[in-house]
Amino acid sequence: SQFLPFLNNNDLLGFLEGSTPVRERFNADNSPNPSYIAWYKKDQALLGIILSSISHNLVAFVYGLNTFKQVWTALKMRFFSQSRSRIAYMKRQLQTITQGSRNCSAYLEKANSIVDQLATLGKPIDDQDLISYLLGGL
């Protein structure tokens, strides 16, 4: 998501959304297509930026992919599945939270931490549900 403003500001969002499609490499007369060359240069610049900003483990994960969109899609799918797992885990933590030996303030801080993490992942918790979880954990 931090990369999107850069793409948008530089009129490159189409590389991600697909509205800037891969150009034909050659014209009908078999001559090099100038629009392909321009597309390729931008695509490779974006690919270089994204590859330089990810860990070596992730570079190995996307090895062999040749375009920015291919790499972006692969990374998105990898992290989307991790986000879903993380969301399920965080929801389960919230549903099973108990006060135990914690004081009231520490109990609420722990619950709020989980709620904040879920909101960051795009899954905010309804206030009524939160109250229900908190009362159930007393």
How are the SSEs ordered, and which strands pair?
Layout: H1 3-9, H2 13-17, H3 34-52, H4 56-61, H5 68-96, H6 104-120, H7 127-136
Describe it for me?
By secondary structure, this protein is mainly α. It is 67% helix and 0% strand. α3 runs parallel beside α5 and α5 packs antiparallel against α6. The longest helix is centred in the middle third of the chain and has 29 residues. It is elongated and about 75 Å long. The chain starts with a helix and ends with a helix.
Brief synopsis:
This is Retrovirus-related Pol polyprotein from transposon TNT 1-94. With 138 residues, the protein is an all-alpha fold. It has helices spanning 3-9, 13-17, 34-52, 56-61, 68-96, 104-120, 127-136.
Notable traits:
transmembrane; 7 helices; single chain; membrane; 138 residues
* Beta-strand segment tally: 0
Oligomer designation: single chain
What gross morphology would you assign?
Answer: elongated
Helix content: 55-70%
SSE-based structural type: mainly alpha
Low-confidence residue ranges? none
User: What is the residue-mean pLDDT, rounded to a whole number?
Assistant: 89
For the largest beta-sheet, the strand count, sense and barrel status come to:
none
From the alpha-carbon coordinates, what is the Rg to the nearest angstrom?
Answer: 23 Å
Strand content: under 5%
Organism: Juglans regia
Protein name: Retrovirus-related Pol polyprotein from transposon TNT 1-94
Transmembrane segments: 45-68
Pfam family, one: Retrotran_gag_2
